[in-house]
Amino acid sequence: MLNIQDAKYVVDKQYKSAENLRARIELHERFSTFKQDFHAWIFNQIKAPEGAKILELGCGSAALWTKNRERISSTWHLTLTDLSPGMVREAKEATKGIDATFNYEVVDAQTIPFEDASFDVVIANHMLYHVPKLDKAISEVRRVLKPGGHFYAATNGENHMRELDNLSRKHLDKWLDLGDFKLLRGYAFRLEDGAESLAKQFSRVEKRVIPNNALEITEAEPLIAYILSTHSVQSSLTQLSQEDLDSLLSELRKEIEGQLEQGAIHVTKSTGLFVAS
What we know:
The protein is of the alpha/beta class. Helix content is 38%, strand content 20%. The chain has 11 helices and 9 strands. It has a 7-stranded mixed sheet with strand order 3-2-1-4-5-9-6. The protein has a two-stranded antiparallel sheet with strand order 7-8. Helix 5 (85-94) links the parallel strand 2 and strand 3 (101-106). Helix 2 (19-31) packs antiparallel against helix 9 (220-229). The longest helix has 19 residues, at 242-260. The two termini are 36 Å apart.
């Protein structure tokens, strides 16, 4: 069974490029019942002064900044980091032309290579559940934050995408060794327990949850792309021959299309963030 905190897998496979990430983002963008863009909602939560120094851990393809490019203060100094060199390259390319000062570095959140009290804001968007030593990473965030600074950490809840867990297991179990299969729910850092981890380092922790949030999926292909992009499935596909893979996809497509004949497939979402200071 894949450990989603396996750094080598996260860097070399799952986030070598933004392809898998894009498949997941697309499903949420197209079929979410919460009509505000997720990255716009995250941006709305962030309070940063003029001239702020901002650090993002696990920046991915820099979607937080490209989707809010017109709202970024030209006085901000943004440091975008990721454990994956491929993601750092994509983030650098994606943010060209945005009127702000950007720096880019490959960084492990457990050993942040910046001085104490360096940043007004630190952001970790759906990435802390990848970190093997969560307490160490949070301690490092606390260290590099200035007094009065804020840490914004987005994650999922235990019931996030549970219907896709059930659908995926029903069809993938006989093909793949998925163990305790879950798609992308937060394992070590969830909405239900993330505050406890943060409270070890921060005196104030507030949880903010996106309201009325679900997926109503009306097409088979984006859903299949999402399932195949996830950690557990990606790491197991090498077990299959091309013939087996074709059979699996045919079976999965038939099931999804059968459900779609009854209307949209409803999928629960449980997503939000913590604000710590």
